[in-house]
Design goal:
This protein is an alpha/beta fold. Helix content is 20%, strand content 34%.
């Protein structure tokens, strides 16, 4: 069960004008709880003007070895979002020595290091989890290779520029790096402009043997990830090899059609070994119903993106407004996002412990 603990800030590194990296110290007694896979994320929590704010940020530091100790530190990347309550606080107020409430790691945008060729297409802050994936994979698996295709506006706006360059210097034969800038000219031979479906369909076969790639990792804004996924399908890449994590989804974007809601409904939820049944109020999500009665229920973004509120649908039927976190095999197995789920039947049962 995911839990919050208070961790001190050990370092605040300015990456660009609008982004920082926060390094958090993990005390010995909590290191096992913060053991993570490459690509996972942390939810950070604060209270401002009486309102609780949670935001999810990906871990960019390498994952600890499975047979070693848990992490001594955790590093996350934060990019300023216009009007963002937490990102503004992170960039303008957080300092060394401050203490932050941090949830234990979560997320399924991960990789288990193994020999083979891997690739990623990332945009903007989407580099953050992929930085952990690349550094962990190449350090642990000498027979692995990685092609990193990243899209940014300009060199000055590129997060983790030095860290990626250091990886390229460390693994010159095993890391292929392609940077595409949309608002800045590059030296001859390097692509410029936006990476959309059409461009990627032509570019990818020229960069690497697409059919030989073991796993594709797509991360960034919704438009980039959607275009990259469609380009890969155009190139006949099996869906099982494509892994996605989306940042910055427009509020109006939906992935499901509306279904009629019952006049009266109730949800039964099992959480941390305890269960309860409560009426669902008109218009609220199942997560909101559960939170009114169990404030310890897991969640972070409430936007259908992070997957922290994933639960197993034991019985009943629900409609999800959006789903940008669960893979197809997860939904087919019966998992839903509680923050996006609304009852279609009068009774619904969820299990957060599975």
């Amino acid at each position: 069960m995911a839990r919050f603990h208070t961790l001190p800030v050990a370092a605040v590194d300015r990456l660009t004008d609008d982004s920082v990296a926060l390094t958090l110290t993990v005390p010995p007694e909590l290191r096992e709880e913060y053991r993570h896979k490459p690509g996972q994320h942390l939810a950070l929590r604060r209270t401002a003007d009486g309102t609780e704010i949670r935001r999810t940020y990906s871990i960019c530091s390498p994952a600890p070895a499975p047979d070693g100790d848990g992490p001594r530190t955790l590093r996350v990347g934060v990019r300023l979002v216009e009007g963002g309550a937490f990102s503004t606080y992170a960039l303008k107020e957080i300092d060394i020595g401050d203490e932050l409430e941090v949830m234990t790691p979560a997320g399924r945008f991960t990789l288990d290091p193994a020999p083979g060729l891997y690739a990623a297409i990332v945009g903007g802050s989407g580099i953050t989890p992929v930085l952990s994936i690349v550094s962990t994979l190449l350090a642990r698996e000498p027979e692995a290779r990685f092609c990193l295709i990243r899209s940014d506006r300009t060199t000055a706006s590129t997060m983790f520029l030095e860290e990626v360059a250091d990886l390229k210097d460390r693994y010159p034969e095993r890391l292929q790096l392609v940077t595409v800038l949309s608002r800045e000219e590059q030296q001859a031979g390097l692509p410029t402009g936006r990476l959309d479906r059409e461009r990627l369909t032509g570019l990818l076969p020229a960069l690497l043997p697409v059919a030989e790639v073991t796993g594709w990792f797509l991360c960034g804004p919704y438009g980039l990830v959607q275009g990259a996924e469609r380009a890969l399908r155009d190139l006949e890449v099996p869906r099982a090899r494509i892994h996605e994590e989306i940042f910055h989804v427009d509020a109006g974007t939906t992935t499901a059609t509306a279904s009629p809601a019952p006049a009266h409904s109730a949800v039964t939820a099992r959480l941390d070994g305890r269960g309860g049944t409560w009426p669902v109020q008109a218009g609220e999500s199942l997560l909101e119903t559960v939170l009114r009665n169990r404030p310890d229920a897991p969640y972070a973004c409430k936007g259908g993106v992070c997957g922290t509120c994933r639960a197993f649908l034991v019985s009943g039927e629900v409609r999800m407004d959006r789903n940008f976190a669960l893979e197809a095999e997860e939904t087919e197995a019966g998992y839903v996002l509680a923050c996006q789920s609304h009852p279609v039947t009068e009774r619904v049962e969820l299990d957060f412990d599975r």
